[in-house]
Design a protein that fits this description.
mainly alpha; 8 helices
């Protein structure tokens, strides 16, 4: 048979700890007389609490705090190993502060070099299509290819002709 009390464990712990008011405690004691599960739980919890009350912790030595702080201050073998490995790679303060500026200058220089690179010289002309190939090409394919070539020619002309007017 299951207990019908809502939040049963919470109420049981409140009862064992003595935090229920007298009226609630009296109602709960009546419930304990009829509910075997709840009365067993209360008995076990009371024995646990009594055992905890009897527990005596070991005394702390007078030098405990001093030894604890000494141990915290000691560096571990791992920290010493990492320090030995990373010391050669540590940069001086001026380099750490100037590194972002140096990096930004290098990126801008590379961008300017790429931006002002001359256009590649035209390569050898494509071989003419044979009469057999002309028969297999559809007129709309030829028209799209010519439109694409014209668009690329205009784009290349604009990119090479006006680098000073660019907004970058």
């Amino acid at each position: 048979m299951t207990c019908t009390i809502e939040k049963r464990e919470e109420r049981l712990l409140d009862y064992v700890s003595g935090s229920l008011d007298t009226q609630e405690a009296a109602l709960f004691e009546k419930h304990l007389q009829t509910c075997a599960e709840c009365s067993e739980f209360v008995t076990v919890q009371k024995s646990v609490w009594e055992s905890l009350d009897l527990f005596e912790p070991a005394p702390v030595s007078a030098a405990f705090d001093r030894r604890l702080y000494e141990r915290i201050a000691q560096t571990s073998w791992w920290d010493r190993l990492v320090a030995r490995i990373t010391v050669p790679f540590r940069a001086p303060a001026f380099l750490r502060q100037g590194l972002p500026l140096i990096t930004a200058a290098a990126v801008l220089t590379a961008a300017l070099i790429v931006w002002q690179r001359p256009a590649p010289a035209p390569g050898p002309s494509a071989p003419a299509l044979s009469a057999e190939a002309d028969q297999t090409l559809q007129p709309d394919q030829v028209q799209r290819a010519l439109d694409d070539m014209e668009m690329l020619r205009e784009f290349n002309h604009l990119a090479v002709a006006d680098p000073a007017q660019s907004k970058m």
